[in-house]
Amino acid sequence: MTARADTPLARFAGDFVKSPTAVAAGIGLIVIALAAIFAGTVAPQNPYDLAQITILDGTLPPGSEGFDGFHYLLGSDEQGRDMYSAMIYGLRISLFVSFVAVGFAVMVGLVLGLLAAWRGGWVDGLIMRIVDIQLSFPALLVALLLLAALGKGVDKVILALILVQWAYFARTVRGAALVEIRKDYVTAARSLALPGWRILFGHLLPNVLPPVIVIATVQVANAIAIEASLSFLGVGVPITEPSLGLLIANGFDYLLSGRYWISFYPGVALLVTLVCINVVGDHVRDILNPRLSR
Amino acid sequence: MLAYLIRRIGQALLVMGVMATIVFFGLYTVGNPVDLLINPEDDLAAQEAAMARLGLDKPIHVQFGYFLAGLVQGDLGTSFVHNRPAIDLILSRLPATLELAFLAMALAVLIGVPLGMYAGLRPNAPASKAIMAASVVGFSTPNFWQGLMLIMLFAVFWGVLPAGGRGDTVDVLGIPLSFLTLDGLSHLILPALNLAIYKMSLVIRLARAGTAEVALQDYVKYARARGLSPVRVVGVHVLKNILIPVVTVLGLETGNVIAFAVVTETVFAWPGIGKLLIDSIGLLDRPVVVAYLMLTVFLFVMINLVVDIAYSVLDPRVRIRGGGK
Amino acid sequence: MTAPVLSVRGLRTDFATRAGRLTAVDGVSFDVGPGEVLGLVGESGSGKTITGFSILGLIDPPGEIVAGEVVLNGQNLRGLPEDAMRRLRGDRIAMIFQDPMMTLNPVLRIDTQLIETIRAHRDVGREAARQMAEAALAQVGIPSPAERLRAYPHELSGGMRQRVVIAAALMLEPDLIIADEPTTALDVTIQSQILYEMQRLMAERNTALIWITHDLTVVAGLAHRVAVMYAGRIVEMGAVDDLLDRPAHPYTHGLIHSIPSATPRGERLQPVRGMTPSLLNLPEGCAFAPRCPRADAACKTRPEERRIGDGRLVRCHHPLESGA
Ligand SMILES: Nc1ncnc2c1ncn2[C@@H]1O[C@H](COP(=O)(O)OP(=O)(O)OP(=O)(O)O)[C@@H](O)[C@H]1O
Ligand code: SF4
Ligand SMILES: [Mg+2]
After folding, report:
1. What is the pLDDT of residue C44?
2. Ligand 2 within 6 A of C294 CB?
3. B131 within domain boundaries
4. Is A40 part of a structural domain of the chain?
5. Whose CA is nearest to atom 27 of ligand 1?
6. In a domain, B261, yes or no
7. Number of folded domains in chain A?
8. Optimal mutation site among B124, B226, B240, B317, interface C, most CBs of chain C within 10 A
9. Whole domain around residue B108: which residue ranges?
10. Cα separation, B307 vs B253, whole angstroms
11. Mean pLDDT, rounded, for B246-271
12. How many Cβ atoms sit within 10 Å of the Cβ of residue C81?
């Protein structure tokens, strides 16, 4: 039963498809991402176009027929927005915020992590001390307090997320880079006085990427959850750009009177997204680090 | 041990000092301290009087001195909204949060460890697969939405438990506690569960991974080869070894419990420090926010200390190092 | 002749690995009498440890004992309910594990581990058990045993830990001890000291002992009889001097001649050439054939055990002449 594994990527793909759960989650993720990207086409209504919504259709239960015959698959909210459409648009904002934030966090983490590993000494000491302190405080709390000071806004949420996440990447990158730096070829290259950037980008970067990818999947899920929580708490995205978290918050009052769908369906969307990411992330980690599995 | 404790407490004070500095200078860089510390609704004369009282007209290093002096005396300013010292306000709400957090942690460990061990010992049993699937879902479900769903099911649809509030409390040594009255307990159970589920999923994963690894160790086989009962092998030889990572991670997660209590308390209108924080942010009651921050820093530092001590009790191999080589 | 303490017949243990099914112990049969020391010799991976675990009924999935009998004092242990089996382990049969550093639980004190063993089998109080444990430690030559009892494993040296494990095995005066290379991890002087002490204690109590090792020199000084294992099968068995002087199986011969002191001066050291075969694809017939200088077409069929003289067994189509 020896699978033909030519390249690391092929081997990775081969291992990945062995788990039906992971494949299902992967497909789920692709569908979710496509729905978010093409929200304008996928959603039957643009929930932010006032011309398309009517307050007369407020808080209709799922499956209702609207005033003008519009079919509310998952019901409507208090302003008469189609929940299904609002959800897809909300998903778009949630995904946008977290992917952008994690992207920047990866970059900051890479730069500072590599710098710490490369320079060593007090640079390393300083960066890692900051990382340690940062990581000893819960991300949600730090982000919450930052936003309390900064105020609401998509850009501010992204900034807060970058600030709470870069440290994970910096630590991972530094660890992986140190392993590599101790290897002979790097020592040799350094003693030949090759330019630092060539070693950094030519040799270190490719080697630190796999663990960064693993952490990044986990952190995207975390970013989505933190953003949703912040928005729920009222310090996240503004009401004009509601993410899934804010949609859920808006439905809270109606939930107590039994109109559950306004909070329920956006939450399901959030949950499915997070489960898919976590399942894929777990599996990727197991493949890249076989010792941990089984 | 004593030397170790002294050193650790010294470290704790250092971290608090650093945090105090960051908070102080953070207030300057993020915003105008006048806005942060002075009630904007006061008239100009009153504002100037307050500025003089707070020393805001002095140079920054002198102000920093005042700030530190206040901190040492436990004075973190006065709440604009409640017109009470912020620290008093926070401390009066603290027991509710701690009660919630402790119950949540207890639920997470008492339910999570046995389930995780079972899944680790019988990885292929259907029940184990179900446990692990549930833990992935529990791990992924956003805390606040999960809280809403608990309310939806238990309070709205079935009407068996209250949707929020704290209910009756009993004072024990001057501290109000909910879990001793039936009404209080019924109010406590949903928020505690809400706060516990994420931790429980984490504990299940840790316990499963730990058990799967420990079960393969020679000393477990040796324990069986000595004819010990399965209960003893699993309940002592395996359990004691997996508790080391579980306690470590849980300790580190205690900070997170406090953080997520903010969410849970908001959902369930639980009158703890987390709800107070969100209310204060909404009302721009900044001294309370600062006081909250300093208190949580203090709590985290203390928690880390307790975790380290628990760790050295559980693992005799680190105890030597604890003595300060 | 007295009845054997342990009698193993046709024991077979398989492992269903991901890469396929393998037979780690393949039709193993032997007896051990009271006070007798049987040396079980073979290179790494030949199935010695698995044989020991199979006797104790401690084979975990994916492993499985598929055939054979394990008879202890006339009672067949195969098919015995797990709880009855558990009562025998540590009490009637004790096993000393291969690696002294890994066998004691690192987070439990020595006294906890010894006392729990006693109380799993004897209805005695904590204090009485503690005294038994202390006496057992003293017996294997551990100085100030009361103090050692309160130690954690990592606070003791390797030699001390090994003594603790030996004491644990002797403590309940079992009928049979399976000692799995109990001294390989120790330095030579401590090794011989422990060997000597064990031998004395076993003889005093008439305990049967299976001594697992890959080192023939250890066997020479200790065992009464020797069984040589290769790829899960016993390929040769006999009284120790007889077997060492006149090996009949080519593998045994190779082993003996790879020991420096057994090689007459001037003759070249001759290790067993070739590699240990993978249990997953053993050659058909005799598993030793690819490495055997005497192999021929007949060796494509599986050799059966055959008797060659006084208590000697060999599993080979072309055994060496006696005295060769
Ligand atoms: N858990 C397992 N899964 C699969 N195969 C196993 C397992 N345990 C043992 N085996 C197989 O059983 C064979 C015998 O192993 P055993 O531990 O008995 O060897 P040994 O003779 O004690 O070797 P050593 O001298 O190295 O201790 C090994 O070659 C191995 O392939
Ligand atoms: S049976 Fe044949 S191959 Fe096997 S040991 Fe004997 S002579 Fe060698
Ligand atoms: Mg072995």
Report:
1. 85
2. yes
3. yes
4. no
5. C44
6. yes
7. 1
8. B226
9. 96-314
10. 10
11. 85
12. 8
Q: DSSP string covering B62-113, please?
A: HHHHHHHHHHHTT---B-TTT-SBHHHHHHHHHHHHHHHHHHHHHHHHHHHH
Separation CA C16–CA B156 (nearest Å) = 53
Which atom of ligand 1 approaches the CA of C51 most closely? 18
Please give the model's pTM, rounded to 2 decimal places.
Answer: 0.80
Residue contact B281–A255, C-beta within 8 A: no
> Which chains does chain A touch, 3 or more C-beta pairs < 8 A?
B
Domain count, chain B: 1
Give Dmax (Cα) for chain B. Answer: 83
How far is residue C106's CA from residue B240's CA, in Å, rounded to a whole number? Answer: 10
Q: B218 contacts in C (CB within 8 Å)?
A: 97-99, 102-103
A43 found inside a domain: no
pLDDT above 90: percentage of residues in chain A = 17
Identify whether C62 is preceded by a cis peptide bond (ω within 30 of 0). Answer: yes
Contact of C196 with C183, CB cutoff 8 Å: no
Of B136, B255, B300, the CB nearest to A279: B136
Q: For residue C211, what is the DSSP state?
A: E
Mean pLDDT for all residues in chain C? 85
Q: How far is the CA of C42 from the centre of ligand 3 (A)?
A: 10
Most ligand 1 atoms within 8 A of CB, residue of C44, C211, C212, C280 to mutate = C44
Average of per-residue pLDDT across A61-68: 70
Give ipTM to 2 decimals. Answer: 0.89
User: Which CATH number goes with the domain that contains B153?
Assistant: 1.10.3720.10
Nearest CA in chain B to A141: B259
Element (H, E) at B116: helix B86-121
Domain parsing of chain C, residue ranges:
1-81+178-186+204-261+273-324
Q: Is residue A28 part of a domain?
A: no
In this predicted model, what pLDDT tens digit does every residue of B192-232 receive, in sequence order?
999 999 999 989 999 999 999 898 889 999 999 999 999 99
Which residue range forms the structural domain that includes residue A99?
Answer: 83-292
- Chain B residues lying within 8 Å of C105, measured CB to CB: 219-220, 222-223, 237, 240-241
Q: Are the beta carbons of B211 and B269 closer than 8 angstroms? A: no
How many angstroms separate the CA atoms of C252 and A110, rounded?
A: 60
Count Cβ neighbours within 10 Å for each residue of B104-123 and write b for 16 or more, e otherwise: bbebbbebbbbbbbbbbbee
Chain B residue with CA closest to A230: the answer is: B263
CATH class of domain segment(s) C1-81+178-186+204-261+273-324: alpha beta
Rounded Cα–Cα distance for residues A1 and C248 (Å): 39
Inside any domain, residue B278 = yes
B48 assigned to some structural domain: no
Which residues have C-beta within 8 Å of that of residue A109, sequence separation ≥ 6? A165, A166, A167, A168, A169, A170, A171, A172, A173, A212
Mind listing the pLDDT tens digit for each residue in C71-104? 999 899 988 898 999 999 999 999 998 887 889 9
SS3 A82: strand
Q: How far apart are CA C113 and CA C105, in angstroms?
A: 8
The residues placing their C-beta within 5 Å of ligand 3, an ion, are C 49
Indicate whether A181 belongs to any domain.
Answer: yes
B298 touches chain A (CB under 8 A): no
Check whether A4 has a pLDDT greater than 80.
no
